[in-house]
Known about the structure:
Number of strands: 10
Structural class: alpha/beta
Strand order of the largest sheet: 1-2-3-5-4-6-7-8-10-9
CATH topology: Rossmann fold
Radius of gyration: 20 Å
Helix content: 25-40%
Largest sheet: 10 strands, mixed
Amino acid sequence: xxxxxxxxxxxxxxxxxxxxxxxxxxxxxxxxxxxxxxxxxxxxxxxxxxxxxxxxxxxxxxxxxxxxxxxxxxxxxxxxxxxxxxxxxxxxxxxxxxxxxxxxxxxxxxxxxxxxxxxxxxxxxxxxxxxxxxxxxxxxxxxxxxxxxxxxxxxxxxxxxxxxxxxxxxxxxxxxxxxxxxxxxxxxxxxxxxxxxxxxxxxxxxxxxxxxxxxxxxxxxxxxxxxxxxxxxxxxxxxxxxxxxxxxxxxxxxxxxxxxxxxxxxxxxxxxxxxxxxxxxxxxxxxxxxxxxxxxxxxxxxxxxxxxxxxxxxxxxxxxxxxxxxxxxxxxxxxxxxxxxxxxxxxxxxxxxxxxxxxxxxxxxxxxxxxxxxxxxxxxxxxxxxxxxxxxxxxxxxxxxxxxxxxxx
Length: 409
């Protein structure tokens, strides 16, 4: 069984167990093929672009290529939405925060997604915020007994180490989260008959077309819909909202940040193949490793690039460049070779010319740092000692970065 599928099952169950990797997995730098990356600053007509041309047409050109070959097109249809406050407490977390739980109903045959929002108390102005999707239910992000629990598969507070909720609140940031499976169930052999996809089907349609969104597209869509709600909350400064994600949710955070310029900052934690790592390095996980167990994360067109990464019209440095000139943070872990830490760093480095075109300091002159030696320019990067996880150390870097990049200090 492919390791990507086993990792997928491990994340579903909350275990950290890893299985045997595919026989053709490459962890040898000497076997990384020679490759040439597409230049984000040369358009499809072969013309060099500056800031004006980037804004005028090149950015949309790159975005369209990702839609067509990687993530699929997200429907532009606007759904009716109704918000209902399910529960609220102004004295949550021992008085540190106000907890609000919101049921968001989408469409005419309403589909419900539950949002959990904590805002810090005792602040003098609207707070900046972090928005992210949790893996196993809102009740897993903290042991707070008042968080509504929609199922009993995962224990209350079982993912609290990934969220560091009280640390974030103490720093003056709000936190908003929603559960992965309420947006897209993320199941092997998925048929897209549940989740949010059917809300957008045309008559007679039962699954996305070859160039339409998969699960990553749906998760990214939901992150933007969460930001829609935060724009209605007076206690939150919606102009200072960072989108964050780990692993497949890191892929989703990057795609959300690329598509939605309202996100003021984007954080990718260990997002790997299909996230921050360069495809063309062919190191660790590759497209053909993903296609059997988790092809539904992407559009069906993505399958044609199995073992043909060099034929992709894009690579992931271009995805990161779509976030420019907004702050971007990419993080890796030393033991997470499957996600190709060097490929994640190089993608950030090769996105840097677009940032620098806008006068933003980035990573063009940087070498890959030693473990636990973060770089904080407009593009932040660190290689944390340890495994595939999001930890207190990671959050310390993201908060320090946000303090400077989103104007909280």
